[in-house]
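Sanity check record (used in CI):
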Amino acid sequence: MADDFEAMWGALAPVGRSAASGGYFRQPWAGAERELRAWFVEACEQRGLRVQGDGLGNLVGWWGEEHATRPDERLLTGSHLDSVLDGGAYDGPLGVVSALAAIDRMRERGVVPARPVGVSVFVEEEGSRFGLACLGSRLLTGATTWERARELRDRDGVALPDALEAAGLPGPQAGDPDLLAGVTTFVELHVEQGRALVDLGRAIGVASGIWPHGRYRFELSGTADHAGTTRMEDRADPMLTYATTALAADEEARRAGARATFGRVEVVPNGTNAVPSRVTAWLDARCESEGALAELVAGLERRARQRAEVDGTEVRVVAESVSGLVSFDPDLARRVAADHTGGDWPVLPTQAGHDAGILSGAGIPTVMLFVRNPTGVSHSPAEHAELPDCLAGVDALADTLERLCT
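Expected output for N-carbamoyl-L-amino-acid hydrolase:
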C-alpha cells in the first residue's frame, strides 16, 4: 500500500510545478489541471472504478456497485486537484490520492461494501482563476447557478464558458449525470492548514466545522496624475486609501481574533511615475461567527470611506463570495474520531473553506479528516506532510470508509 501511494504521489509531483519557486500552478481547465484529471480517470480505470463526469469537469469513480446491498445510500470521498497560484503540493491532491489508496487498502482487507463508494474530484475548489471558491461543488449542489457562473471571467478576461470550451468541455448539460444522486455521506481528507495537530502531537484530526468566510472586492477610485509635478495636497490617490484600509484590516482582525488578508491588488495605470487612478484590492475575511464576519467587513468599509474623504477618493465594496458557518454532523464526527489506537483523534475547527462545507450545507452528512502539516504553512510551496503521516491518513480514511460502507 505504501508503494502504491508513493507511486501515485510521484506521478503527480512534477505536474504544474514551477522550477523557480517549487510551487504549483494548477489552474482550473488549464494544461496542468487537465493533465491531472486525465491521470485520475486512468487511475480509476486501472482499479475498475466506473467513472462519471459532467460538462464542468467534476469527476467521480465508483467502487462496489455490483455487490452493494444498499445501492441508494452512496458514500463519497475525495477532494480537488487545482491549486492556488504558486501553491503547495498537498492541498487537494492529498485527498484524491489518499482516497484511491484507501480503496486499495480496503480491497486488501477483503472489504465488500454494502454501499457504493465514490472517489470525487471537484473543479475550481480554490477559486483562484474565476474568483468563486468551490465552484464545482457549488454548481453540483445548486448553491450557485450556471446563469451566474457563466458570467465569471478570469484576470485575463476569459469567460468561464470559453475556458471550458478550450478544455474540451461543453459546460453543464441537461443530460449530465447527477454525481451526487444517492450520496448520503461525504468524507474529505485534507492536509491540515495550520499547526493544531503539530501542537497536539497527533498525526490525524477530525474537523468540527468551518469558520464563516468571504471574498470582498474593494474598488477604490481617484485621479491619475504626474508623480513629480502634482503636490501631495492636490492628489486624489486611491493607493493611500488602500494602504490605510489594509492596515485597518490587520488591526481589526487582531483585535477580534479573526483573519483579514488583502492578498491581491491591481493598480491602474500601474506606472512608477504616475499617481494611480484606480486600485482594486481583494479582501479575504474569516471569523468565528457570521455576525462577527459581517461586523468586521462593515467596519473595514467604514474605515475605508473615512479615509477616502481625506484622500478625495471613492470606495465601492462588492461581496464576490460569502460562505456561512459550517457545523459538521457532530454525531458523525464523534463516531469517526472515537476508539483508535493511541486514543481518540482530536476534533478541531478549521478556518479554511472546502468542498466538504458546500456538501454539508446542501444537507449531506459530512466529515473531514486532517493530516498533520509539520510546517503549519499552506497555500505556499512550504506546505508539507511527512510520508508516515500521509500513510497514517490513508489508513484513517480506509478505516472510516470501511466503518461507513459496511
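The chain has two domains: 2-211+325-405, 215-321. If this sentence no longer matches the regenerated C-alpha cells, the check is flagged for review.
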